[in-house]
Amino acid sequence: SNNWQTTYQGGITTIPATSNWIIRRNSAVAIPMSSTTPASGSVYPNLTIENNAAAWITPVGSSFTGNTINVTIKGNLDIGGVGTNTVDFLISNTHANPTVVMGNLTVRTGNAIRNYGTGIEVRGNLTCDGTIGYDANDARRIIFGGAVNQTVSGTGTLGVWDMTLSKSAGAVTLNRIVTVNNLATFTWGVMNTTAANLLIIAAAGSVTAANPNSFVDGPVRYLGSGAFTFPTGDVADYQAIGISGYTPVGTIWTEPFSNGCTQLCLANGYNGWNVVSTGTNGTSANEFYISCQENGNAAGACGSGCAADPSLHVGNVSTSPAAPFFCPTGDCGAAYDAGVGSGTCATSWRAQSPAVNCTGYGNLVVSFNYMEGGDGTNDNALLWYYNGAAWSLLVDLPKTVLCGVQGTWTAYSYALPASANNNPNVRIGFQWVNNDDAAGADPSFAVDDVSISVQEYFTAQYIYQNPQVPYGSTMAPSLLYLSNCEYWLLDRAVGSFTSTAVTLTWDANSCPVWAVPDLRVARYDGTSTWQNEGSASTTGTTAAGTITSNLVTTFSPFTLAAITTDPLPVTLLNFTAFYQDGLVNLDWITASEINNDYF
User: Which residue among 40, 139, 336, 478 is buried most deeply as judged by most CB within 10 Å?
Assistant: First the structure.
């Protein structure tokens, strides 16, 4: 591979973007790949990395690494291709500029990218049916650039630490949910979302630099409880909406598996937990253990053993066939015996939590940190739920990104079914299955810091249309004027928390503001009337500014209103102009006319 980089006729930068470069691993060979050859930077055309041998975790020499120059892929980057086995590809280049994919980036099912360096800039479509993960270091950005419209799709695990929109033209359309865990930066370009495919900012995340050229057109959700400004807009109009911080209900149950680092087989019982058989278990089936042999590290950290934070994990037993070679005493962390094909190590256990009383709570979510490896769906971890009457499968947990020979601790959350609301007998289960076919890869499965919380969050969207059309114009007696050109939808998840204030914005695209002190925040009450939510503070001038409401506890459409009427004698509901047969045709609708003579 490196030879081709250095000897391509005319220099590797001249290779046509339409040509195809396929790196196909057919045996246990570390195929070299360069990030820094030549000195001007490695350049590839359409690049496919695929594997027909054993599962391939690319080492540094077969990855994009270094720090002196970045990598450019002039075409598409395909991780997995048509290979019969999987590729876990490392991108750890820490040059100031990211790895640039000028075409589409595709991560196929079962395959992965470890985004461990500065990051990846994608200028085409991003499809993730496998896994894109990140570590606990470096920038780890995913940047959407270029001048063409892009889509983000796929059913795999798309881990995003930092996301940046930095396009010279075009928009990014989400065809799946994308969660940003740290920072979303809006420089240039619009992100289109829908209720089913929205942008989520995690509880610890934030947004910066949203502006009239870069925002979210559609709903955006914030999972935190601190003050937050939503980067909302509509078509070509950016108008943010903000909330102040609030006090959430928070966590109602947690299980940190703190047993003093004693090695404990869960089958012997722990804090109300138990283990049940869910299928075939051999005479030396792997077991669930609670111990420090697999330390419960923070999300993003590599797995490690022999520390001070126990975890629940699947390990081998001392009688298993491979035990004398790698773990004679049993329980060496999330390291299992994949067997020899005799059925001896076949495993199918479910670890089940004690009953959790969720009476009085709704909109619940289970959260935990975990790692999972194994041999595809033959060796697998599953999340289960008990509603007081029967167990049901919630999700087949995605495999986590490897970190050398260990797993990467990964944060995961899943919304519980509605039957968990106000239910005094909710239980959570973790199932591990392996089929004893002598094929497997550590880690097995480990989980820590399990919790059930009331999932409280806000979802916001800006709509540049007349709010009086869908919701009417009836106002509380204290209001005399209501905007007829824009409104915001601000909804919160079911839950109970102290009140929060709402901040609206206006600029030249808004309806005229004639007196800032007279402005008020109006909220539609869901039945018939726009209520006056007051004015706790304002900034700016009549040209542009913000207004913050008094504290509110119910949420619905919001818009700008005033306690005085428009000083003009005519209140317009609508005014349009369009070209017709060589003339400009003007149409308007008035809401009121006072002392006017003619148009």
Answer: 336
